[in-house]
User: What shape does this take?
Amino acid sequence: MTSLIQIAAEQKSADVTDWAARIGWVVGLLLFIAFVYWLMRQGWKWRGSLQSDLPELPAVPEAPGEAKLELTGRYHGSTTAGQWLDRIVAQGLGARSRVELRLTDAGLEVVRPGARDFFVPQAALREARLDKGIAGKVLAEGGLLIVTWAHGDKLIDSGFRSDHAAEQAAWVEAINTMSTVNSTTEGTAR
Assistant: This one.
């Protein structure tokens, strides 16, 4: 009987939590997440250096004229024209932001609070269309306003989403009318 009491007194319950192992796993996971984030950041910088030949973006002129159309919404990014997954990050074109667009006779003003503003001269506008996606953003068919414009020797698609999606069709018509005028005047100048 005494040996049974000794055995019962000596037994202990197992430790429920091994804190050293748990802390090790948490630290390891945090280091892995930091490493993946660092790799993504390096990829973004690398893409920007590959696109370093993109010229400086035109600034918004002092007096661009009276606005034909105005829109508030979101800027979702820019890509190489016709390649909806080839995001352009150089010159700040990769940064998503709120946007205020103004279409004037001089061109398209893109005002982005918290990001770099730019201007697309009227002669650089090529076309506009409603589409469903651009790099990193996919919506229902016709959910994005895509504006194609020339910058340097590159054609660029920029994606915008209006706060009021119904007004995007008017933008397509107005920009396409301006670009038709551009192509007509270019054709007669040759």
About this structure: The two ends are 113 Å apart (CA to CA). Residues 19-50 form the longest helix (32 residues). The first strand starts at residue 69 and ends at 80. The chain has a mean pLDDT of 84.
